[in-house]
Write a structure and sequence with these properties.
With 179 residues, the protein is mainly β. It contains no helices and 13 strands. The strands form three sheets. Strands 5, 7, 8, 10, 11, 12 and 13 form a seven-stranded mixed sheet that branches. The chain has a four-stranded antiparallel sheet with strand order 4-3-6-9, with no helix packed on it. It has a two-stranded antiparallel ribbon with strand order 1-2. β11 and β12 form a beta hairpin. It is rod-shaped.
Length: 179
C-alpha cells in the first residue's frame, strides 16, 4: 500500500493521529468456468455464452489496500426479469446471464464502485442461432434443416458447417462454439 495520508488533531500539548488510505476501483476482471481471470477491456465488450456463470472481481487501488466497509458496490442490468444486480461488500461476485443481448451493440452492464471511483463491464450474451452448411467447397451457405428434418448428402460429398451467432454481429466467446 502506498504511504497513507496522516491526519492529526491537536489541542495544546495533546494530539491524536490517524492514517488514511483513499481507495478506489482500478478495474474489473472476469473469468469463465475453467479459465483464469482476465481484465475487462476498456471501451470494448466481453462476450459470454447464455446461461453461463461468470465470476467478476473488482480490483482495488492502491494495490494491497483493504476495501472500506460496504465496498465495493456492484450494480447493473443483467438482462433478465428482476435482473438488477445490487450487491455490497464483496470484491468477487458470480453472475449468470440467462438472456441473450438484444443486439451486438446493446451490452448488459455490470459496475463496481467505491465512493466516486467506478469501473464498468459491458457484456454481450450470445447463443447459437442456427447451423448453416455448404456443399463441396461452395461459397454459399444454407440453413441446415431443423430436427426432425434431416440433411441427406451423397457419399464422398464434402460438407462444411458454420454456427451462426445471436445477436447478429456478435463475436463468439473464446473456445465457442464447441462442435
Amino acid at each position: 500500500v502506498n504511504d497513507p495520508y496522516e491526519v492529526t488533531a491537536t489541542c495544546g500539548t495533546s494530539s491524536a493521529t490517524a492514517d488514511v488510505v483513499v481507495c478506489g476501483i482500478s478495474g474489473i476482471q472476469y473469468r469463465r468456468p475453467g479459465e483464469a481471470y482476465q481484465s475487462v477491456p476498456i471501451g470494448a465488450s466481453i462476450f459470454v455464452p447464455v446461461n453461463e456463470t461468470v465470476d467478476f472481481l473488482a480490483s482495488i487501488t492502491p494495490s494491497g489496500a483493504t476495501w472500506p466497509d460496504d465496498s465495493p458496490v456492484w450494480s447493473g442490468d443483467i438482462g433478465v426479469p428482476g435482473g438488477e444486480v445490487s450487491e455490497t461488500g464483496d470484491d468477487e461476485i458470480p453472475v449468470t446471464f440467462s438472456a441473450v443481448s438484444p443486439a451486438s451493440d446493446s451490452p448488459y452492464t455490470l459496475t463496481a464502485a467505491c465512493g466516486t471511483s467506478s469501473a464498468t463491464a459491458d457484456v454481450i450474451v450470445c447463443q447459437v442461432e442456427k447451423i448453416q452448411y455448404s456443399l463441396d467447397e461452395g461459397e454459399t451457405y444454407e440453413d441446415a434443416p431443423v430436427p426432425p428434418e434431416i440433411l441427406h448428402v451423397k457419399k464422398g460429398t464434402s460438407v462444411r458447417f458454420m454456427a451462426v451467432v445471436e445477436p447478429s454481429g456478435a463475436t463468439w466467446p473464446d473456445g465457442k462454439p464447441v462442435w
